[in-house]
């Protein structure tokens, strides 16, 4: 062997050694090397943590980036399910029980994914679900989300627990947003929240009904233990601490008020209907029986939801709950669904099962935590692209043409 060839072979071996030694490489250099060397034939290369929105290949890529950027306690709040996180996992597994039945030889050069909800047309059936405390993920919080949603033509639902006011978010979005209500245990507070959302121009009130009595968020508590920062430097514990950073409660007398509402019953639905001209949507319905009651109590719409596996540990995915709710409603009101949506195929399956639109929570919050507004925009772009690609593959050119015939329920004998 020539001396130069031996030297080259030594150099290659030395470089391979370096590539396998994280200690001598700085963050970005190490990521570059990992990208170049992780592949062995036949193996899917593991993705490095993305350092810009454009690097993300799918929405899962934002989760690792969010985890890297967030304090442990805040990531725990974002990631947690309840008890063993079984419902959180079930939400993802549920989609595999439905298979897509694609139709061929349809002209799919143009597809239209727009959807109409209560008289308003949105570019996409992907809605940004309400999530509290978004400034815990990024200093721009709900404003960054509103700008991204508005720019991309998506509906945004603002949480009662938002760290930005409904008026500011409405302005940043540019279009009508929906307001999500946690009613508390005091009608005076409920009434004030509803009237403020109405005055801000929200056309729809979303009453969340799946958290009457608290929850057991073990994963969150484990992450919080790892966090060395004192929580009290940002927020105080309890309701007073909670509302200090929540502008929807500004100016309200909160002495003696409880944030949970264990006494909430169907009577509250009637009272809310009599109080506001906004449409009333119930979020957290999971059974046909409750869907029937929604119809009977004059509810205007339903979001099938288990709070992203953060409410009760039912062990049941929402995509599996969806058919019985759709069946009970019989087209009398729009049914939306959330919890576990991460892929365009997930969106396709739910819409084929009769959902009018779907909501996402964690994916856009990962995008927000990782990169602010551009991160949220990229999450929406990826999901829209995947969904429209699925429409094309299945031969569906508009949402009106998407029906039950496009999915097979493999749970049925
Ligand atoms: C960090 C976080 C905060 C949330 N806050 C609220 C809230 O204030 N009100 C509400 O109705 N739902 C809330 N949710 C539930 C979402 O609206 C939605 O149901 C859920 O995130 C959908 O599941 P996914 O995260 O798997 O997409 C929250 C979810 C997360 C992840």
Structure description:
- The chain is α/β, with parallel strands linked by helices and 413 residues long.
- 42% of the residues lie in helices and 11% in strands.
- The chain contains 16 helices and twelve strands.
- It has helices at 3-19, 27-37, 61-69, 72-79, 86-94, 141-152, 166-173, 187-199, 218-226, 238-244, 266-275, 288-296, 318-329, 344-352, 362-371, 373-394, and strands at 98-100, 115-117, 120-122, 126-128, 157-158, 178-181, 204-208, 279-285, 301-304, 335-338, 357-360, 407-409.
- The strands form three sheets. Strands 4-11-10-9-8-7-6-5 form an eight-stranded parallel β-sheet. A two-stranded antiparallel sheet has the order 1-12. A two-stranded antiparallel ribbon has the order 2-3.
- Strand 2 (115-117) and strand 3 (120-122) form a beta hairpin.
- Helix 3 packs across helix 15 (362-371) and helix 14 crosses helix 16 (373-394).
- The longest helix is centred in the C-terminal third of the chain and has 22 residues, at 373-394.
- The chain is globular and about 65 Å long.
- The termini are far apart.
- The model is unreliable at 1-6 and 12-38 (pLDDT under 50).
- Flavin mononucleotide binds at residues 77-78, 91, 129-132, 159, 161, 180, 208, 283, 305, 307-308, 310, 338-341, 360-362, 365.
């Amino acid at each position: 062997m020539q001396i130069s060839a031996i030297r080259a072979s030594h150099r290659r071996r030395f470089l391979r050694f370096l590539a396998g030694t994280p200690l001598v490489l700085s963050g970005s250099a190490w990521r570059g090397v990992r990208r170049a060397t992780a592949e062995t034939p036949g193996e899917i290369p593991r993705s490095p943590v993305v350092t810009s929105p454009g690097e993300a290949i799918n929405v899962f890529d934002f989760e690792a980036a969010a985890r890297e950027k967030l304090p442990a306690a805040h990531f725990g709040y974002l990631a947690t399910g309840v008890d063993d996180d079984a419902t959180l996992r079930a939400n993802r597994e549920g989609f595999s029980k439905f298979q897509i039945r694609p139709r061929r030889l349809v002209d799919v050069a143009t597809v239209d994914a727009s959807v109409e909800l209560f008289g308003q047309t949105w570019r996409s059936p992907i809605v940004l679900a309400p999530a509290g405390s978004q400034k815990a993920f990024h200093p721009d919080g709900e404003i960054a989300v509103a700008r991204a949603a508005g720019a991309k033509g998506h509906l945004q639902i603002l949480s009662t627990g938002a760290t930005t006011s409904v008026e500011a978010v409405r302005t940043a979005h540019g279009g009508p947003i929906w307001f999500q209500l946690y009613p508390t245990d005091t009608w005076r507070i409920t009434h004030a929240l509803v009237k403020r959302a109405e005055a801000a121009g929200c056309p729809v009130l979303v009453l969340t009904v799946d958290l009457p009595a608290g929850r057991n968020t073990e994963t969150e508590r484990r992450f919080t233990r790892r966090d060395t920062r004192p929580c009290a430097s940002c927020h105080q514990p309890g309701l007073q601490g909670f509302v200090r950073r929540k502008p929807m409660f500004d100016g309200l007398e909160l002495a003696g008020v409880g944030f949970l509402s264990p006494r909430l019953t169907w009577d509250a639905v009637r009272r809310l209907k009599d109080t506001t001209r906004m449409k009333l949507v119930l979020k957290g319905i999971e059974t046909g029986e409750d869907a029937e009651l929604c119809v009977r109590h004059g509810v205007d719409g339903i979001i099938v939801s288990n709070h992203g596996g953060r409410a009760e540990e039912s062990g049941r995915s929402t995509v599996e709950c969806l058919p019985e709710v759709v069946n009970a409603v019989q087209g009398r009101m729009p049914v939306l669904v959330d919890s576990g949506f991460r892929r365009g195929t997930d969106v396709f399956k739910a819409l084929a099962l009769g959902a009018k639109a779907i909501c996402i929570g964690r994916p856009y919050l990962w995008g927000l935590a990782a990169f602010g507004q551009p991160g949220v925009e990229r999450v929406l772009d990826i999901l829209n692209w995947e969904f429209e690609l699925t429409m094309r593959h299945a031969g569906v050119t508009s949402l009106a043409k998407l029906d039950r015939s496009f999915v097979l329920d493999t749970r049925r004998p």
